[in-house]
Write a structure and sequence with these properties.
Layout: H1 2-5, E1 8-13, E2 16-21, H2 24-33, H3 63-78, H4 84-112, H5 118-134, H6 143-150, H7 152-159, H8 164-167, H9 177-206, H10 215-224, E3 227-229, E4 232-235, H11 240-268, H12 270-283, H13 299-312, E5 321-322, E6 327-329, E7 332-334, E8 339-342, H14 344-348, H15 374-377, H16 393-410, E9 411-415, E10 425-426, E11 432-433, E12 438-442, H17 447-461
Parallel strand pairs: 2-8
Antiparallel strand pairs: 1-2, 3-4, 5-8, 6-7, 9-12, 10-11
The structure holds protoporphyrin IX containing FE.
Protoporphyrin IX containing FE (HEM) is lined by residues 56-57, 69, 72, 76, 246-247, 250-251, 254-255, 258, 315, 318-319, 321, 382-384, 388, 390-392, 395-396.
Length: 463
């Protein structure tokens, strides 16, 4: 549509006018140059159901939102990427989880030969954020956890590009399939919020002065005392569960979708899998695992990850925005409270910027001298830009790097020859690959991973 109608066009969805912004220049003009004007969220009914109605991700632009975002962002960094020590601790969580994941992959291959990896990858990513939020991981067989994290598809299907009820509220007034779907969405949010509230209650009961065990403790300490703004108290203890809910919810579906794409691309392009393995083997010998310090020496691994994000554009749009004031972009007037869709996909598939954008080719990010082309990697748009830019970007990139490098170092991924070799996806807030199955074999033994985790446990016990 952007090719036909230009970078700014308007569509009518039910009762709402929606302006769609396309292309790098237009999107940056709106979200960066006129950041405040475009930083709102629509007053959609569905948005009010997320995180007990106090979501920072789905909440409107205000002083409360600014304070909320600041606390969430600094806490996420403090537990993941803010300095070398936190990075090391975060890396240890990730590597321990990858070891569990590889064990499950090998077991499934032994039992079923080819198996679907999507739910396993969902639990793996949920476990890492759970370790940060609650200091606890779950077994891959845990029924409660699987049901809480496994139903996220329904969430992203409803939020993706605005649910029908948001733009046609009267659909709620009589029985119809959309009303049923919306009812499921409501229940899903209530159940997820209850799961988080329960964890927060348990934390309050066991928290000890001077000891911050995890992000939930950090939020309790930061928010229980209340954050004041010029017009009185902005944030208080009632914001702890919504903040944890936002962090947990925002990371889970996005990261597991990213990993599904990475695994799919490994099996669809075996020659690239071999090149990844060769690069990792050249830098990291077989007696240790790849670590975050190896990242600058692994440009092809990084190129593969950026190309996976560009090619799949698995978050094709952002969460819908809205205008906070009368404004304009590219000379078009846009009234206050207009719903804005940001088309990230259009940036990643612009044929003027990317040669053959529909072709998966990581080498587009590697220069002639073999370095990663950082100007080009910065042009991939998947975490959005401006005031609403994702707060989990650094954490996600670190996680994706370790997953890709370690899985390439440790495993071979094999496609099921009985399945069509497609790269198709299903639509929602995130684009997921259509179901596919794989087999996984080890490139050696579990020894290096096992001894890494044993050493960690020994160090833990001696503290
Ligand atoms: C590959 C993984 C991820 C991708 C591609 C991604 C992408 C995005 C996008 C596109 C948005 C919407 C931005 C906008 O509306 O303009 C967003 C918002 C957000 N993300 Fe992420 N995200 C990822 C992982 C994470 C993680 C791991 C966390 C938490 C640690 C997180 C926390 C958030 C939050 C809190 C917001 C709301 C920001 C706001 O409204 O101010 N995300 N993310």
């Amino acid at each position: 549509m952007a090719q036909q109608y230009g970078d700014v066009f308007q569509i009518k969805l039910g009762s709402r006018n929606v302006v769609v912004l396309n292309g790098e220049d237009t999107i940056k003009q709106a979200l960066i140059k006129k950041g405040t004007d475009f930083a709102g969220r629509p007053d959609f009914i569905s948005f009010k159901l997320v995180s007990g109605g106090k979501s920072l991700a789905f909440g409107s632009y205000s002083n409360l939102w600014k304070a909320h975002r600041r606390i969430a962002q600094s806490t996420v960094r403090a537990f993941s990427t803010s300095n070398p020590q936190t990075k090391k601790a975060f890396e240890q969580h990730i590597i321990s989880e990858i070891r569990e994941l590889v064990k499950v992959f090998l077991k499934k291959t032994k039992q079923e030969k080819y198996f679907r990896p999507s739910q396993i990858l969902t639990v793996a990513t949920a476990n890492i954020i759970s370790a940060l939020c609650f200091g606890k991981r779950y077994s891959y067989e845990d029924v409660e956890f699987k049901s809480v994290v496994g139903r996220n598809n329904q969430f992203t299907e409803t939020v993706g590009a605005g649910s029908l009820v948001d733009v046609m509220p009267w659909l709620q007034s009589f029985p119809n399939p959309i009303k049923t779907m919306f009812g499921n969405f409501k229940n899903l949010n209530l159940e997820f919020f209850a799961f988080i509230e329960d964890k927060v209650t348990q934390h309050r009961a066991t928290i000890k002065p001077g000891i911050i065990r995890d992000m939930t403790d950090a939020f309790i300490l930061a928010l229980d005392q209340g954050k004041r703004g010029t017009n009185g108290v902005l944030l208080g203890k009632e914001h702890v569960p919504p903040t944890v809910c936002d962090i947990f919810g925002a990371s889970q579906d996005t990261l597991s979708t990213a990993l599904q794409w990475i695994v799919l691309l490994l099996i669809r392009f075996p020659e690239m899998q071999t090149r990844l393995q060769q690069e990792v083997d050249n830098v990291v010998d077989r007696t240790r695992l790849p670590s975050i310090e190896d990242q600058p020496s692994l440009p092809y691994v990084m190129a593969f990850i950026y190309e996976a994000m560009r090619f799949s554009s698995f978050m094709p749009g952002t969460i819908p925005h809205s205008t906070t004031t009368d404004t304009s972009v590219n000379g078009y007037h846009i009234p206050k409270n207009t719903v804005i869709f940001i088309n990230q996909w259009s940036v990643n598939h612009n044929a003027q910027k990317w040669a053959n954008p529909g072709v998966f080719d990581p080498t587009r990010f590697v220069s002639k001298t073999g370095d990663l082309n950082k100007d080009l990697t910065n042009s991939v748009l998947i975490f959005s830009v401006g005031k609403r830019r994702c707060i989990g970007e650094e954490l996600s990139k670190m996680q994706l790097f370790l997953y890709t490098a370690i899985l390439a170092h440790q495993c071979n991924f094999i496609a099921n020859p009985d399945e069509p070799s497609t790269l198709d996806s299903c639509y929602g807030l995130t684009l997921k690959p259509t179901p596919f199955s794989i087999a996984v074999t080890h490139r050696g033994s579990m020894d290096v991973m096992d001894s890494y985790v044993t050493d960690l446990q020994k160090a833990d016990n001696s503290m």
